[in-house]
Amino acid sequence: MTDRKGIPRREFLKTAVAIGGTAAFSACLGREEIDVPTGPDDLSSYPQRQHAWNEILPRDDHGNVVAPHHRVLLFLNLQENGPPTEPDRTTVETALEGVEHAYERSGDGLLVTMSYSPAYFDRFDSSLPESVDLPDPEALAPFEDPKLDTPDAVVHLASNHAQVVLGAEEALEGNEATLNGVEQPDAALTDVFEAVDRRTGFIGDGLPAENADVDGVPTDKVPDDAPLFMGFKSGFEKNQASEDRVTIQAGPFANGTTQHISNLRLNLDQWYNQDDRWQREAKMFCPYHAENDVIEGTGDNLGDSSKIDECDPADETAREMGVVGHSQKSVSAREDDQPIILRRDFDSTDDGHAGLHFLALQREISDFVKTREAMNGTDIAEQSAVGQRNNNGILQYIRTQHRGNYLVPPRSLRALPPATPRTDSTQEVANASS
Amino acid sequence: MPTHVEGMEMAEMQSSGGYKCALTYTYPHRFWLVTGSRREKVDIKSNDSTHLMPVVWETETGIVPPDINPQVQITQDGESVAQLSPWPMLSQPMGFHFGDNVQLAGDGTYQVEVSIGAPSTRRTGALADNQGQTTFSFEFDFQQSALEEIMYRDIPSDTEGTDGAVDPMGMEMMPSTHVPAEADLPGTVHGSVTSGDAKFVVTTLSDATPFGGREDETYLAVSPRTPYNQYMLPLMSLSGTLSRGNDAIYDDILQSTIDPELGYHYGAVVSGVESGDELAITVDSPPQTARHEGYETAFFEMGEMSVSL
Fold it and tell me: Cα(A312)–Cα(B202) distance, rounded to whole angstroms?
């Protein structure tokens, strides 16, 4: 579908999210005719886990969760020094509830999480309880030098509809009196915060190919149906940690989770113009997959896992074949043969360059560090023909630009939580079996 | 022998944090990517402007570390022009280097930033301290006409494709990627063997302390090199079996290591070496470096070798 100005509708919607603002939102409303149900008046039935998205997101034919297509990350700093006040908390909670009343909680509606950095918790005299593992961000590979993000808070907005993430953002910034026909409160996140960064993106079949007109990716090479710039599907059900596995189990922040957000810059000219299909499959999955034609197209035929059990151990492949696959390396970061991080990453064209916002949830930041160390393949590179980046998964094509760590508190503590919330008794997660 | 030889130009040289970096360039080149024992030809594209080679070396030793992948960012007046992660490569005139063809926006001055991270290959001796991350900034004045003046020498057609190699190019102030000549290697040199066109020199050092062993242990080093120009051959998986009679004294990997005296080599600490011991060397993976013309078929079929010590 092409509108009267000749811009394809989907392309316009992506661009609108990247640009943001009232004008982009208005333009979306004019072009994207959708009917998103409003949220309930009473939000008390909403889950304590802000990150409980899987139960309400659709699944594909193989049972994989279909990630919401459009995303905005708002990076926020409190305007005042020192710890926040009770009125500040009320303002934040009221603003968040405003957008939740406007859009139902679903993939076609709005999913929102509020998270806080270690720098935010430094405002308090007391420290976070031991049940929360939230260190300051740091470089996680000997060969990277990322900027370390220290905003106070990050809001993650997700929806299958561009106008929903844009509308929610506008309302949270106090720019909409009504949203989806629902009156908005006289409270905005920007009453207490200042927005210091805004990162946007998309994930889903076809979106990357439509958005390939940026630096870092050859425009005509991304497969038309690929969900991500690199051309392959990811986030297979069996390669994702469960929400239980990433949920903090005890203490005042039980039912919360930790979140790592990195920004990776992609340089895919070599990937598409120099490497061939065999090399892309070997480097993304493992040489076994490339040798045996395991992957068709973007890998939808793989079903609900990347089938890495069929690959030889990474260190063996590295020694004997001189190359090791990205997925193959992740095996060493499993516990009880299960992944320990839950990816909610998405592609981006921020700053006119192809990129990836790698957002991951895990019970402890150390789970992420362990997973990333497996991806570095440092031991493998030391002991084999695999190089620091060369033939070492997909490291050749990626540069880490930013890293940040956050706590996603339980819903009841999502508005400017203290470092040591008072609780009547130590909360335990109902489902503590994971 | 390749069909022709091309020269190269150096835009500028910088020093930072124990390293030097020269930004060098030449014509766009075709080359072959290597993944395992597969090679895949990369043709020159019509919009390729130049073959860019950021050459980084350790100031003290002049060694070019193959494990430190320089990352390149090219801008012009604040606008991004290209970002690349050059491939590790082997060429006859240059030896080991990092390079890739790059598309620029025509003649003009570009700002080129070359950044390096910490090493990932084992360092021994004085090099163990050289761990830093650093960035080099260059002004790169690119002129197509100057590129065309870079030396281009045709190899006589009766020599093309025959055994041999063109002479390494000498450039003032530039490091070479030679390994030490057989006679200049430290320790007791036990001779050499050939496999897949490469020459493997074996030496043993009586005190293994600098290599993580004990004083009464021996360090066994294997130093592979190209046959004519003695260029290092990095990014291989090598293993070794040291046998005395029917007993295996050592049977494990030979780890890639960069040492100030031995250069880039593959080695292991063994309990000791006696006259008459046999060393079998296995190439589990051939050098995973991209290849320029002249090396595209060399160093692939590398059978097991045996040396009497």
Answer: 32
What letter does residue A127 receive in the DSSP assignment?
A: P
State how far the Cα of A63 lies from the Cα of A54, in Å rounded to an integer.
Answer: 11
Distance CA A232, CA A223 (A): 9
| C-alpha B22 chain-centroid distance | 16
User: Among positive and negative, which fits the CA dihedral A364, A369, A370, A375?
Assistant: positive
CA distance A233 to chain B (A): 23
Contacts of B289 in chain A (CB under 8 A): 390
Q: Do residue B87 and residue A270 have CB atoms under 8 angstroms apart? A: yes
* Mutation choice for B interface testing from A217, A375, A390 by most B CBs within 10 A: A390
The per-residue pLDDT string of chain A (434 residues; one tens digit each, 9 = 90 and over) reads 344 445 566 667 768 898 888 888 988 888 878 899 999 999 999 999 999 999 999 999 999 999 999 999 999 999 999 999 999 999 999 999 999 999 999 999 999 999 999 999 999 999 999 999 999 999 999 889 999 999 999 999 999 999 999 999 999 999 999 999 999 999 999 999 999 999 999 999 999 998 888 888 998 899 999 999 999 999 899 999 999 999 999 999 999 999 999 999 999 999 999 999 999 999 999 999 999 999 999 999 999 999 988 999 999 999 999 999 999 998 889 999 899 999 999 999 999 999 999 999 999 999 999 999 999 999 999 999 999 999 999 999 999 999 999 999 999 999 999 999 986 544 445 444 44
CB B249 within 8 A of CB B269: no
Structure tokens at A313: 């151990």
**B34 in reach of chain A (CB within 8 A):** yes
- Sorted by where each starts, the structural domains of chain B and their CATH numbers stand as 4-154 (2.60.40.2480), 182-308 (2.60.40.2480)
Among A410, A359, A99, A383, residue whose Cα is nearest residue A252: A410
Residue of B120, B253, B284, B300 to mutate, testing the A interface (most A Cβ within 10 Å of its Cβ)? B120
Q: Could you give the CA distance from residue A159 to residue A174 in angstroms, rounded to a whole number?
A: 20
Please tell me if residue A220 touches chain B, with a CB cutoff of 8 Å: no
DSSP-based three-state secondary structure for B86:
coil
The domains of chain A are located at 9-413
CA angle A156, A162, A165 (to 5 degrees): 30
d(CA A4, CA A25): 18
Of A346, A223, A190, A210, give the one whose Cα is nearest residue A295.
A223
Smallest CA-to-CA distance from A17 within A77, A58, A74 is with: A74
Of A88, A98, A63, nearest in space to A238 by CA: A63
> B33 and A381 in contact by Cβ < 8 A?
no
Mutate to test the interface with A, among B124, B283, B288 (most CBs of A within 10 A): B288
DSSP string, A38-75: PPPS--TTS-S-TT--TTTS-B-TTS-B---SEEEEEE
Identity at B268, one-letter amino acid code: A
The distance of A403 to chain B (nearest Cα, Å) reads 17
DSSP string over A87-102: HHHHHHHHHHHHHHHH
A268-292 CB burial, b ≥16 within 10 A, e <16: bbbbbebbbebbbbbbbbbbbbbee
